[in-house]
Amino acid sequence: MKQNKIFLFNRDTRRQGGFTLLEVVASLLILSVVFMGFLAGFQRSCDKAQLQFLRERAFSVAQRHIETLIASHQEPNSVGFSNVDELDPLFNWQLELVRISGDSAAPKPDLTNTVIKATIKVSLADADMLQMPPLEVTRYFAWLKPMPGSIVSVPLMPEEEPLWYTELRAKLGREPTVEEIMDEMLKANELPQDLFEEMEEQEANENQYNELLKQETSR
Amino acid sequence: MISRNPDKQKLRKIKMTRRAFSILEVLVTLMLVAMVVAGVLKILNYVNDQSEAIELGMTQLASIEYSLNKLIADVSTASQGGGQINIQQGSYDQHETSHLTIVIPSGDRAAEPQIQIEWVAVPRYEQDDLVLFRREKKKNQSETAYYIPQCENLFSFRARMQDANSVSADGPALEAALLEVRAQLFRPGSRDPGHVTPVSRSCCLSRFP
After folding, report:
1. CB-based contact (8 Å) between A67 and chain B?
2. Residue A175: count of CB within 10 angstroms of its CB
3. Hey, which residues does B116 pair with through a beta bridge?
4. Mind listing the pLDDT tens digit for each residue in A98-125?
5. Which of A7, A73, A120, A137 best tests the B interface by mutation, with the highest count of B CBs <10 A?
6. How many Å lie between the alpha carbon of A101 and the closest alpha carbon of chain B?
7. Lowest mean pLDDT among A5-19, B36-50, B137-151
8. Res A12: pLDDT
9. What was the pLDDT predicted at A159?
10. Is pLDDT of A146 > 90?
């Protein structure tokens, strides 16, 4: 029994070895990486909380300007379209007024089937402070009083045609056909992916149908 | 004196040859460990302080926003029933404040008496901030109606009613009355009027019949 105890003691002391420098450095590196990850996570959650805080303030700014527009029912002059907020100078606000068709039909000449879409965009005045996407609040108005000297408020703007369409028309010397427009849209990558896939499928079906038709007629 | 027991001799030999840390090694290790632990604790303390400040700030902001939403709800109720809104302006030292009195007339049924709701911000005793109170009193109420604190830590509380046909702060003439409520909230742990968080609510009374 005594022999056994001595043997155990002997083994523990003789074989006792410390960590090598490499082991210590590696463990420190791992620890620091874990700790940095923890700190980065905390920083991100702080930024998110700060962002939420700012978004609530931005919403307050947008809501105030929309309410002023509701109370005045007046199309603002050029000064009233964008500014630094007077109560919360941390934010810039921008008003966009667009007249749009209220239904799928084309706008009537008296614009009775159109509405005015008012969008307030609020963004941080100092863009370097935090990456906050602009907050948008939209409200539709049936009418707004026009500016002095104008007959209609927020006139209907003609839809701007894309550059490729103008170039295509100039190249052809006439209005392009639907197929030519589709081809050009494909080239300009302006055709939505789902529409493109639908067209391809339709073309494949047509080819298959033509093949079958050809086979039937040859018989 | 040499022991005659061979086991004891062996044990002594082992003890003498065992390698131990020197006092310098121990001290340096202790110092390094203490430094690392202190650094980690400092960082954790900073993280904790930041979390607490964010939580407090969010709670205070939520508190004032909830109060202002409640105020707008009171105004909405009064406007729908043809009520009255009376605003008195005041100030305590550098704190601007307002006293809103909202009267909601009695309904068609006798069971709905006239209600008077008051919103006022007043300073706390020996504290450099305002506390927003609300009191709701029914006309035939016999017991005392108490002012109930809604939120604290305010630098200012200002309500302003812009009547119809007046010129709004932003320029255009107003077609309908516009109620603007503005409050400024101190940042957590600060009493600096230069660093306050503005909170506002606007309410156009034309939206109520």
Report:
1. yes
2. 10
3. B103, B137
4. 888 877 777 776 777 788 999 999 999 8
5. A73
6. 24
7. A5-19
8. 52
9. 66
10. no
Please give the average per-residue pLDDT across B111-133, as a whole number: 88
Q: How far apart are CA B128 and CA B171, in angstroms?
A: 35
- Res. A181: pLDDT tops 90: no
B96 touches A at CB < 8 Å:
no
Q: H or E segment at A62?
A: helix A21-72
**Which of B14, B174, B182 minimises the CB distance to A71?**
B174
Q: Which two tokens stand for residue B160?
A: 């302003």
Instruction: Please state, in angstroms and rounded to a whole number, the distance separating the CA atoms of residues B165 and B7.
Output: 110
Between CA B31 and CA B35, with CA B34 as vertex, the angle to 5 degrees is 85
Note whether B204 contacts A71, CB cutoff 8 Å.
yes
- A130 CA: distance to closest CA in chain B (Å): 16
Q: Mind listing the pLDDT tens digit for each residue in B171-197?
A: 677 888 889 999 999 988 888 888 899
Please tell me what DSSP assigns to residue A47.
H
Judge: A10–B14 Cβ closer than 8 Å, yes or no.
yes
| Separation of alpha carbons B7 and B16, rounded Å | 15
Give me the half-sphere count of Cα atoms (radius 13 Å) on the Cβ side of residue B61. 21
Residues of chain A positioned with their CB less than 8 A from the CB of B10: 6
What is the rounded CA–CA span in Å between residue B29 and residue B23?
10
Predicted pLDDT at A123: 93
How far apart are alpha carbons A10 and B10 in whole angstroms? 10
B87 in contact with chain A, both atoms CB, cutoff 8 A: no
Average pLDDT in chain A: 81
- Among B120, B131, B81, B113, smallest CA distance to B98 is for B120
Report yes or no: B196 and B165 within 8 Å, Cβ to Cβ.
Answer: no
Q: What is the pLDDT of residues B60-106, one digit of tens each?
A: 989 999 999 999 999 988 888 778 899 999 998 889 999 999 998 87
Closest CA relative to residue B79, chosen from B117, B41, B31, B132? B117
Q: Which comes out higher in pLDDT, residue A151 or B146?
A: B146
Phi–psi pair at A116, nearest 5 degrees: -100, 125
Q: Is the pTM of this model over 0.95?
A: no
Please give the single-letter amino acid code of residue B41: L
**Chain A CB within 8 Å of residue B48 CB:** no
Q: Which residues in chain A touch residue B58, judged by CB atoms under 8 angstroms apart?
A: 49, 52-53
Q: Which residue of B has its CA nearest to A86?
A: B170
Please tell me the distance in Å from A198's CA to the nearest CA on chain B: 47
Element (H, E) at B34: helix B23-80
